[in-house]
Design a protein that fits this description.
With 130 residues, the protein is α+β, with helices and mostly antiparallel strands. Helix content is 25%, strand content 39%.
C-alpha cells in the first residue's frame, strides 16, 4: 500500500502468492525463514503461511489465501494475478495488489478501520464506491 502512495505506517511486508509460490520463496530464502511455510487456519482466513526476517524486516508469505464467507464456507483461493499490477520503484518493477482488492479484502475480514482508510484514499484518487 505504501508503495502505491498511501501514507501508512509499515510494520512488515506481505507477499501474497499461491501455495507453490509460498514454498518456492521458502526454498529460495531458507536462511531467512523464522517460521516455515505451513497450512494455517484462523477463524476468518486460511493459507499456506510462513515468515522471513531479512535485515530486521519481517516478511509474511501467504499462499492460496481463502477468506470465510457467511460464517460457514470458504471462498476459492485468491488468484492474485487477477488483482496484481506493476509499479516502478527505484528503477525496479514491483508487483502489488490493487488497493481496490485490498479494500474488499479488509471488509471481508471485518477490518473496517483499515478498509475505511483505503476507501477514503481511493476516493481522493477519484475512485467511486457504493
Amino acid at each position: 500500500m505504501a508503495l502505491q502512495g498511501l501514507v501508512i505506517e509499515v510494520h512488515d511486508i506481505d507477499i501474497q502468492t499461491d501455495r507453490q509460490g509460498a514454498y518456492e520463496i521458502e526454498n529460495i530464502f531458507p536462511e531467512y525463514m523464522v517460521a516455515p511455510v505451513h497450512y494455517f487456519e484462523s477463524e476468518q482466513i486460511r493459507s499456506y503461511f510462513g515468515k522471513l526476517e531479512i535485515e530486521g524486516i519481517n516478511v509474511e508469505i501467504m499462499g492460496d489465501i481463502q477468506k470465510l464467507i457467511d460464517e460457514r464456507s470458504w471462498e476459492e483461493p485468491v488468484k492474485v494475478e487477477q488483482y496484481r499490477h506493476w509499479i516502478e520503484f527505484e528503477s525496479m518493477q514491483i508487483p502489488v495488489l490493487s488497493l481496490e482488492y485490498e479494500y474488499q479484502a479488509y471488509l471481508k475480514l471485518g477490518r473496517v478501520e483499515k478498509a475505511e482508510i483505503l476507501k477514503k484514499w481511493l476516493q481522493n484518487q477519484g475512485k467511486e464506491f457504493d
